Amino acid sequence: MTLIQAALNKKPADLHITNVRLVNVLTGEIYPAEIVISGTQIAAVESAGAAPSRRAQRVLDGGEQLAVPGLIDSHLHIESSLVTPASFAEAALRHGTTTVAEDPHEIANATGLEGVRLFLDASRDLPLTILFLASTCVPAAAGLEHCRGELGPREIAEMLSWEGVIGLAEVMDARAVVDETPGMSAILAEGRRANAIIEGHNPMLEGRELQAYIAAGIDSDHTLSSPARLLEKLRLGVTAQLQERYMDREVIAALKALPQPLPTLCLVTDDVAPEYLASHGHLDHVLRRAIALGMSPMQALQAATINPARRLRLYDRGLIGPGRRADVLLVDSLEQFDVSTTISAGRVVMEGGQMRWQPPGGYSGLNALRDSLDLSPVTADHFLPDLPRTNGTVEVRVIISHAPGTTTEEGSANVEVVDGVPQLGGTDLSLIAVLARGNQGRFAGFLRNLGLQRGAVATSHAHDSHNLAVIGRDRQSMATAANAVINAGGGISVAVGEEVRALAPLPIAGIISDAPLAVIAEQMRQVTQSLAELGVRHPYLLMRLSTYTLPVSGGLRITDMGYVRAKERELVSLVI
Fold it and tell me: How far is CA 464 from CA 2, 79, 107, 261, 548, in A?
């Protein structure tokens, strides 16, 4: 066996990394070492200077940097970065992520099972390992919205048979789990039959309902949680997948107060906007943030390497040791975590801060997903709420937007109506509307506290069904923004009156750009700047705009069928 021969120095290794300080995520030690790589695997890890006669095709001097395992992201949606898998791979590898677990429910909601198959095919043969989970809630809330994709037990069983699909993705419809609806029960049964991991999404359940949810086999959570709720879940065996926007000093302090480090703690990204990915980084940024908030550097690294590897049952990676996959990073310090070199499966893809691998050009495998938005041009009248009188005052329900997070709550407002048109001048209200793909449905309501002073924003990247969501202070601006997105085949636009101020086209399934990351990142910066000029500022702007339409995420949400109370899983009227 070549690997054994290389370990014994009976055959030359492919790569010999010298002069590094190895960070051992098993023992918590840091010590001088040399790493021997043969093919895609690590053949040996030896003490510094122990093998002066070691033979290798190439010797890489680590310059006394730290050698750490490649980062593993156990929960994310590539589509949220608005790029193709190849473009995403380049950015992730640049920042030290070598393995990800992709939940394709964005592409699944927009295009169905065939779209997922094409997206999986586009994720193969890349130096970044992209593993898939079968999306369990497509649509996210059946009966509460129109959705182009639909994955039932039969489709889930088929996905679980595909190479590279390792489990069931986040089960967002917690109500369906505890109510034991036939469809959800059958999907979970398929997961258990395949002995698959089952990922969770559960910001609302507690007590006995939480226990029932976990008993169904769903044993992870990446949603907003107070320290008390987080500890409740950890004590019940739930893997906590901690993302940046839900991370604060209270949460970190609660974790540090536990008597021993947690093997069930993972750092994840979930959703990373393209401009954020380009300027801040990927999982490396979450790791740095956790350390800055008080987590020990070693625990943070473990939560980004060995813990997610075990969570995903990837026992061939997550640490640097003989027989493991050769995913190795060189960094100057754990606190700064500035990746200079990335080695993925024995291949040096970045060295000295310079990428050695570039995405292949001319890939056409996703072209079949173009023109899937399927919406006709609109006029200002499409954004008139259905109010009971043409003149007078009407009390209506209002979505109250929170910042800096993405939560909402239900409120009310008295709105003056003149000739059937709500008068928003002098108020802090905006109109918000959802137009379903294929012109299947439309609903318009009211939003408070986004900060929009004038103009409008439209996005076809709107979780999870990715229908067209439009927010505006006046209906003409809303029509202009919406038509810019429709004409582009999908995207995000900002408009004032009849002028389009910014546009980020997303022609692939209406949610992904076929441009390089740098291009879509700059387009999104222009969207962000234009909205800032109109009064909207939010640290996670894309997620804020795209989650008003998420009917399983708590508070009051909106779909093309109406307002949705997420916890009760019910539609409620516009007019009180």
Answer: 47, 11, 9, 35, 10
